[in-house]
Design brief:
Layout: E1 5-8, E2 13-16, E3 25-29, H1 40-58, E4 63-69, H2 85-93, H3 97-114, E5 122-125, H4 130-142, E6 146-148, E7 154-156, E8 193-198, E9 218-220, H5 222-234, E10 238-244, H6 248-263, E11 268-274, E12 277-279, E13 282-283, H7 294-299, H8 304-312, E14 320-321, H9 324-347, H10 357-366, H11 371-383, H12 389-403, H13 417-431, H14 435-447, E15 450-455, E16 458-463
Parallel strand pairs: 3-4, 3-10, 4-5, 10-11, 12-14
Antiparallel strand pairs: 1-2, 6-7, 7-8, 8-9, 12-13, 15-16
Helix pairs in contact: 2-3, 4-5, 4-6, 5-6, 8-9, 9-12, 10-11, 11-12, 13-14
Amino acid sequence: MSKLKLFNTLSKKKEIFKPLNEKQIGLYTCGITAYNYAHIGNLRTYLFEDILKRTLLYNKLKVKHVMNITDVGHLTDDEDEGQDKIEETAKKEKKSPKEISEFYANAFFDNLKDLNILTPNIKCKASDHIQDMIKLIKKIEKNGYTYKGKNGNVYFNTSKLKDYGKLAKLKLDELKSGSRTEIDPEKKHPRDFVLWFSLQGTKFKGHLQKWDSEFGEGFPGWHIECSAMSMKYLGDQFDIHCGGIDHIPVHHTNEIAQAEAATGKKWVNYWLHGEFLVLDKEKMSKSEGNFITLKTLIDKGYSPMDYRYLILNTHYRKPLSFAYPALDSAKKTYDRLKNIILELKSKNNSKKSKNNYKKEFLESVNDDLNTSKALSVLWAVLKDSKLGSKEKLELAYKFDEILGLSLKEIKEDKIPKEIKDLAEKRQKARNEKDWSTSDKLRDKINSKGYEIKDSKEGYTITKK
């Protein structure tokens, strides 16, 4: 049997996946910061994570999947010096932070549903886990990794952790803050970060979200949120932590530092990161205003599955330049796939033949989630004349457990009687070799928003 191999950011190489406990895999994926709509670049990351989860399940492994919702204190730039995105949006829209986060979190999960992304076992909001964060900070403090600034903030002392920055291969003595804002003068080192923001003596005095703690009234830093929630539901050690590559140098690096400073042992075994979706060679970004949402694509006539198909064609660790011609091509290919599935459903004949398709497909996805190669195996099945429609469908449905293209749910569009009548008249013209009339009728069908495709068996009509 093919062994699952995953590229581990921690070791910078592919490794055979060895779970801590084969009875249940612990998987944590960083969820949305709920202050705006998720853009299609964000959604590319969640699609790669969905393929990972589906691959684990396909390999007959049970998965406990935890995803957080950041609804507290996610700051811009270097997190510690920026502005709170959620509170900024709340003030702009004259709503409470809770109203803002709930609205955008619901929109996000609607996106996941539209893209056929499997629902996490646990969806946890940061605001519901403040006490868990305070407890974790106290552990870190007890172990000697914190200091308090004159402003009341509680900082993590990165110089105390010998292997700080190991995920991104950072060297502490060479590090300088990459912030676009003024460096916090209270920090002992530019890479130190805030575990707890105090409302006393800092610019966050007017912060709307605040909690009492032994560190003073305030709110948690972004990094401590993910560490505390993942550890609450998955334990002090678990298998896989995922996110986008932008999380490697700061957020995930600081998560590791906190967790391992608290427990004194290795935290996560496998770190997987998805590459960017780029526009004109630039990262898609909400803060820069250059982003496209899933609704944008739907309003332009694309389906969420068209976008999913586009993403499956490129490996998750390769940058993907988004362009509408590429999405058009994906849509065309996915439409063709749907038509073939519909055609196979209508035939339902059986013709068995020995083949290695299941093995080839498993080898593809188990090779660090090689979905483009897995798609090529699916197309090889559909083109194989030695297989009957029943056998092709069975394999396609099996492969779709990972691809997630909703192949079982594909149904023939309800075609209006007017269009069907035009198609029948066109078929009659074709039978009589009246090509001029046939072409005119095709154009008329196209003008009404439908497309007709000819085959040996007759024709199929689809809505554009």
